[in-house]
Design goal:
Blueprint (H helix, E strand, L loop, with lengths): L4 H30 L4 E8 L2 H5 L2 H6 L5 E4 L7 H12 L3 E4 L7 H4 L4 H19 L5 E3 L7 H9 L4 E6 L2 E4 L2 E5 L9 E2 L6 E6 L8 H14 L2 E6 L1 E3 L9 E3 H13 L3 E3 L1 H6 L2
Parallel strand pairs: 1-2, 1-10, 1-13, 2-3, 4-5, 5-9, 9-10, 11-12
Antiparallel strand pairs: 6-7, 8-10
Helix pairs in contact: 8-9
């Protein structure tokens, strides 16, 4: 059958419209798939159990789940154990942050068995007696090397978390300042990586709400999980040796993550998500 020029052009136009529509639909499906894992993994270090527990209403408000890395578990009181179990029942993870919060690279110089004897075995035993079996580990002070990592992974930990800082000062001089969105190592690629870095959000980090919004937007766009961590919840500027994060600042992060419909991950969940 022969087509007139007008008919031919009309058919071509219809095909183009159908093709474009199909391409757009495919692109939309890809975008939906692209963002399906995007999220944030927030963790807290040391032994601020009562202070962490006080944040429970904020976590519930944004349906957030986080990871608490506990150190010095030998000093856990019955009340603290009860609070940690309540947090765990809420969906949060209880991780391990060492028995004595020691320098791993120094402890392991006397051999792997010495390192395990001092920093791992006692603390994990205390945790087990309290009813916890941690599968994630945060390096005390961010101190570790390949040998330490090897021992920890062989001990059954799914994921090891290190420390990342966006600004570094030495003797009062600014050595560097990086926007979190320009730090790819603080984003989890869901590639089964077991040694990761999380960005410090404590008061002395100098981070701003605008920077955190950009960082969360990048996680959404790139289909990755932004990893963050802090220490003690504070409700004002640190004083008398305090080190920790501003609670309103944390809530802004949770609020923005919720607004962008990002998933909240525990650290072990990152390692389990394909």
């Amino acid at each position: 059958m022969k087509y007139s020029t007008v008919t031919f052009l009309r058919h071509c136009l219809i095909k183009c419209i159908i093709l474009c529509a199909g391409t757009c639909m495919m692109h939309c499906r890809q975008n939906a798939q692209t963002n399906e894992k995007a999220g944030v993994a927030i963790s807290f270090d040391d032994h601020f159990i009562n202070e962490w527990f006080a944040l429970r209403p904020i976590f519930q408000k944004y349906n957030a789940k986080v990871t608490f890395f506990v150190t010095c578990p030998d000093s856990l009181t019955a009340d603290e154990v009860s609070k940690l179990k309540t947090l765990q029942s809420d969906g949060h993870e209880i991780g391990f942050h060492g028995t004595i919060h020691g320098k791993s690279t120094e402890l392991i110089m006397a051999g792997p068995e010495n390192y395990k004897k001092i920093e791992l075995a006692p603390g994990l035993s205390y945790m087990a007696k309290a009813g916890f079996n941690p599968t994630s580990y945060a390096h005390p002070g961010g101190n570790h090397n390949d040998q330490v990592d090897s021992v920890l992974l062989a001990s059954g930990f799914k994921i090891l978390r290190d420390v990342a800082i966006s600004r570094r000062k030495i003797m009062g001089f600014q050595m560097y300042a990086l926007a979190p969105r320009l730090m790819p190592w603080i984003y989890y690629d869901f590639d089964s990586e077991r040694i990761v870095d999380a960005l410090l959000i404590d008061e002395d980090s100098g981070l701003t709400e605008a920077e955190m919004k950009e960082a969360l937007e990048k996680a959404k766009t790139d289909n990755k999980a932004l990893m963050l961590f802090g220490h003690e919840p504070l409700y004002g500027k640190p004083k008398n040796g305090e080190y920790g994060f501003d609670v309103p600042f944390l809530e802004q992060i949770l609020k923005e993550a919720d607004r962008q419909k990002l998933k909240f991950y525990t650290m072990s969940e990152l390692a389990d998500t394909k």
